[in-house]
Amino acid sequence: MIEGVILTPLKKICGDKGSVFHGIKSSDKGYAGFGEAYFSTVNYGDIKSWRKHKKMTLNLIVPVGEIKFVLYDSRISGKSRGRTFSVIIGDGNYCRLTIPPQVWMAFEGVGKGLNLLLDVANFEHDPEEEERAEIEEFPYE
Amino acid sequence: MIEGVILTPLKKICGDKGSVFHGIKSSDKGYAGFGEAYFSTVNYGDIKSWRKHKKMTLNLIVPVGEIKFVLYDSRISGKSRGRTFSVIIGDGNYCRLTIPPQVWMAFEGVGKGLNLLLDVANFEHDPEEEERAEIEEFPYE
């Protein structure tokens, strides 16, 4: 595993009229403060290429569909430098993926229908603190 | 409108590979702190009956489907005492609905597919601070 990355299994509680899906609590491991919650979707087979945040911790939850995340650690002073990690979360594996700052992340739509991602981030979106890279730049497996 | 209730139009930003849907930022009007983010679903035609929180402010977003919310103000010392408010939010009307503590709320699945609700609440779920009531107890229109 990459240092600082946390994969937390979450509960879905089914009821007669609908369900409740856990997301994140302020007392949960990996919670890093609140700046913004926003959704992203990614089409089946499409890859949203590498991005890295300078100071933002991401807490990612896929309530609908399935999304593959690939992470790459380029941090100079880390035990997991050069390591990759990939996981599919969503319908079949309902988990929260916590990604610390400075770790590269790309993601791909795996479900054939809607693939919906919620990010609960500890800062508001700021293009200045985000870096992007083409998919060829790091190993995407 | 009921005192303290806020309906905020939100943006959906479409891209080639998917979209980004705004949710809530810590600088937004209606943001009351972070305790927990969780999802609920409600089946088409089903009503999840009245509930009222003693101290929790709800920030509700419907990224998938359509949900009707009906609110009832039973606060003794309010300008909108006895007033109801209803709104459908989701696919056709992408908004955030902020509900202050002490206002009754019931909701109903309007979309025929998945109706998904995100609540960004300022406290963690606590059954002690929630009251429930049968649908007949207040005017549901």
Walk me through this protein's architecture.
The structure is a homodimer of 141-residue chains. The first copy, chain A, is mainly β and 141 residues long. Chain A has one domain (6-118): Jelly Rolls. Helices cover 0% and strands 50% of the residues of chain A. Chain A has strands spanning 6-9, 12-14, 19-25, 36-41, 47-53, 58-64, 66-73, 84-90, 95-99, 103-109, 116-121, 130-132. Chain A has a five-stranded antiparallel beta sheet with strand order 1-9-6-11-4, with no helix packed on it. The first copy, chain A, has a five-stranded antiparallel beta sheet with strand order 8-7-10-5-12, with no helix packed on it. In chain A, strand 2 (12-14) and strand 3 (19-25) form a beta hairpin. The first copy, chain A, is globular. The relative contact order of chain A is 0.32. The model of chain A has no long low-confidence stretch (mean pLDDT 97). Chain A binds chain B through residues 16-27, 33-43, 46-48, 63-64, 109, 114-116, 118, 120, 124-125, and chain B through 16-27, 33-43, 46-48, 63-64, 109, 114-116, 118, 120, 124-125.
Low-confidence stretches of chain A: none
Helical content of chain A stands at: under 10%
Name the pair of protein chains with the most residues at their interface, and give those residue counts. A-B, 36 and 36 residues
Instruction: Please give the CATH architecture of chain A.
Output: Sandwich
Q: What is the overall shape of chain A? A: globular
Whole-number radius of gyration of chain A? 15 Å
How many DSSP-defined strands of chain A? 12
Query: Which secondary-structure class do the elements of chain A indicate?
Result: mainly beta
